[in-house]
Amino acid sequence: MKNIYLFTITILLFINYSFCQTIPNKVFVLGNSLTQGFGTHGMASTDTNTDYYYWVQQAIFQKNDSISMNRFSGSTWESLTTSKKRLAFLNNSVARQIDGKEDLIIIQLGDNVNTEDKRKNLFEDAKTLLNWFLNKSPNSRILWVYGWYGVSKNMPIIQNAISEVKGCELVDISKYNKKQYQNIVGNTYVNKNGNIETISSNGVASHPGDLGMEMIANEIISKLSLKDSISEHYGSSKFTIELTSNNGNKLNLINFNNKVIIDAKELYDQFLIINILNETDKIIFSGKIKIKNE
Question: Can you tell me the mean pLDDT for 156-185?
């Protein structure tokens, strides 16, 4: 009589070179009010545990508990109107915040470039900013997070600048600047002194609330591939497979989406050693699972 084994495998992949993400060790964030507008956290999140910075930090921490992450306000860069002054801000202020060991730089700027005088050099200054970071931290990956305010005029400029600098990518958050992702007047937040304050202006309330911050974080986390798994590469993270032993040692199976080959070998009638191969027969997971005779 055939022995039928029914089981479900759930595997997270972060080991295969073809699909694995590079987990950051040292992160620096240069942003505006969305990053540090409330002093200790981004406007208009409730507290330090609800802004996008926190959620990105937590996602990285799950992969690397020795992560070092720091943020600094770059609103001054946005407010300046000459390339010379913007470069001086980088050299005199931002340079003190980094040491060259950063492997991830997140730039969250552009929203306050809201006049033609500030905008006239934005293209060249954005490229200078990106190249400046690449020169200071040559092993870094750079993500430019943008799109809460001023999108129609600034997005094309920032996109073009990013496209001309290798190693830089855009994280577009513009689709989230809607009422349901903003905060509202009357809600409260924890200020930099730990006291509860009430949002009293529409300008503050128009910033992302807690849900908006989560959406921004999700876009960044997705870009970093920190949720990399079989489900995202092959359509499903769960494989329900019926194994039939016909006095043979080796079973070659294909899961239901016909993409991943499961190479299973019996071991002691209680465990299976499995190798999961991709379409080019490269092993992308190897492990041992316990089986139960149904």
Answer: 96
What does the alpha-carbon distance between residue 244 and residue 264 come to, in Å, rounded to a whole number? 11
pTM of the predicted model, to two decimals? 0.72
pLDDT tier for residue 16 given thresholds of 50, 70 and 90? very low
One domain, residues 277 and 206: no
pLDDT of residue 71 exceeding 90? yes
Task: Classify 291 as helix, strand or coil.
Answer: coil
Domain co-membership, 184 together with 256: no
Q: Are residues 218 and 280 in the same domain?
A: no
The CA–CA distances, whole Å, from 171 to 82, 140, 148, 155, 260 equal: 26, 16, 11, 11, 30
**Burial (0-12, 13-18, 19+ Cβ within 10 Å), 242:** exposed
Q: Which residue has the higher pLDDT, 97 or 281?
A: 97
pLDDT tens by residue, 229-287:
323 333 333 343 434 444 444 444 444 443 444 444 444 445 555 555 555 555 555 55
Q: What angle do CA 261, 242, 285 make, to 5 degrees?
A: 35
Angle between helices 52-61 and 210-223 (to 10 degrees): 40
Amino acid at 208: P
Structure tokens at 238: 């769960």
Q: How far apart are CA 31 and CA 82, in angstroms?
A: 19
Statement to judge: residues 81 and 188 lie in one domain:
yes
Distance CA 77, CA 193 (A): 26
What does the block give as tokens for 152? Answer: 């129609």
From 164, 194, 223, give the residue that closes a domain.
223
Strands 271-277 and 104-108: unpaired
The three-state DSSP-derived secondary structure of 214-226 is HHHHHHHHHHCCC
